[in-house]
Design brief:
Elements: H1 2-9, H2 20-52, H3 55-81, H4 96-124, H5 133-160, H6 163-188, H7 196-224, H8 230-241, E1 248-256, E2 262-271, H9 276-294, E3 296-305, H10 310-326, E4 331-339, E5 344-352, H11 360-374, E6 379-387
Parallel strand pairs: 2-3, 5-6
Antiparallel strand pairs: 1-2, 4-5
Helix pairs in contact: 2-3, 2-5, 3-4, 3-6, 3-7, 4-7, 5-6, 6-7, 8-9, 10-11
Length: about 400
């Protein structure tokens, strides 16, 4: 079924290089399929819930309605994310995909809260639940539909690397689990007078709330500016390391303005004896490769470094050893030496894990003391502290 839908509505999906237009079409197809399936399931469950008097089935129907609403928002989000960059938004509109997911999370939380309130009332004032074969059939069909939606959205989400679709897939999987619980409750209600209907309805509502909170956290994170995922970092680093003239790299920062709109910057170290125009050309080539191969707009800062000064190398080695004694996770880069008549300045960056940033004054003070104790020279350090998240 998935292959058929893609063939009918996204014929370019099978192409080796998927464009942003194809990606958007896949997202809109997912939203449309979710709307149709969830509305049908909602209507069927509302009918069965009203006939049997089951709040658990009605709660599950409301969950399907929230999913359908979420699919509408996803569809709109992918549509708006297609808008090209303009004067007011030079980085494009791709973050609409994140905003649509955030709106879905808000809807899920509202519906989950209302269902929880109704279920609690049902626990304290239970009413008889009528179990019927048609109700059981509808619930079984719902489980299989939700399992298919889970597999459908998970495949598409992985293929186009969309957190929104992966979240939709996880929600479909959760729905299959909760509907199975409702079905089990309907069967068990034949053998007990316990208010299982309200209890299971509450459990489903809590599950909806949990899904909404989880989806909200996952959506807010990229909007706040999370660090680049390890896979993307490795892809960028692999391009840098492919150039033998690059002796080191640091300060890799990735800014995510939505799928297909990622911008990055980093520093690369090259021998200061290399021709500046030659290094500039190499850097231009690295930036172009990153855009062509990984769709990341990379800007590289050129750091010329001295490689043939024995005294500089010895002092750098000393500083590295002293910092390693303080904490093995501390590193340095951009190490320079400026000699004066009465003293020598060592200018460099210290890279710290975020947990050590509050200790930076103490770390520098101890480093200065250790340098003074280890050498007879009058040495001052000029230090800039960097967070480890930007240095890999």
């Amino acid at each position: 079924m998935t292959k058929l839908l893609l063939k009918l509505f996204v014929p370019a999906y099978s192409a080796q290089e998927r464009t942003e237009k194809v990606r958007s079409s896949v997202g809109k197809l997912s939203g449309a399929v979710g709307i149709v399936c969830n509305i049908l399931l909602c209507l069927l469950k509302l009918f069965i819930g009203s006939v049997t008097g089951s709040i658990a089935i009605t709660a599950d129907a409301m969950n399907n309605l929230s999913d359908a609403t979420g699919s509408v928002v996803t569809l709109i989000g992918f549509r708006l994310a297609e808008k090209p960059a303009d004067e007011e938004h030079p980085y494009g509109h791709a973050r609409f995909e994140y905003l649509s997911a955030l709106a879905v999370a808000a809807l899920i939380l509202i519906i989950g809260f209302e269902l929880a309130k109704t279920s609690v009332q049902k626990i304290f004032a239970p009413t008889p639940v009528e179990f019927t074969i048609p109700a059981a059939v509808i619930l079984v069909v719902s489980v299989f539909v939700k399992l298919w939606l889970f597999l459908f959205n998970r495949r598409l989400g992985k293929d186009i690397k969309s957190n929104a679709l992966l979240a939709t897939a996880a929600d479909s999987r959760n729905d299959a689990i909760s509907t199975t619980a409702v079905l089990l409750c309907s069967v068990l209600s034949l053998f007990t007078e316990l208010p299982l209907d309200g209890i299971v309805g509450l459990a489903v509502a809590l599950f909806i709330l949990y899904s909404g909170i989880t989806l909200g956290k996952e959506t807010v994170s990229p909007l706040l500016g999370e660090s680049a995922d390890e896979e993307l970092q490795n892809l960028i680093v692999s391009i840098l390391e492919s150039e033998e003239k690059v002796l080191g790299y640091h300060d890799l920062m990735v800014h995510d303005y939505g799928p297909g709109q990622r911008f990055a910057s980093c520093h690369v170290e090259m021998d200061c004896r290399e021709d500046a125009m030659f290094c500039h050309e190499l850097i231009d080539n690295l930036e172009r490769r990153c855009l062509l191969e990984h769709k990341v707009h990379l800007v590289i800062h050129y750091d010329p470094i001295v490689t043939d000064d024995e005294e500089l190398s010895e002092l750098r080695s000393l500083v590295e050893q002293l910092l390693q004694k303080q904490n093995p996770h501390i590193t340095i880069h951009d190490f320079r030496m400026v000699k004066g008549d009465g003293h020598t300045n060592l200018i460099f960056d210290i890279v710290l894990p975020s947990s050590l940033m509050p200790e930076k004054k103490k770390i520098k003070k101890r480093l200065d003391e250790d340098i003074a104790a280890s050498t007879q020279k009058k040495i001052y350090t000029v230090v800039t502290f960097d967070m480890g998240a930007f240095n890999i």
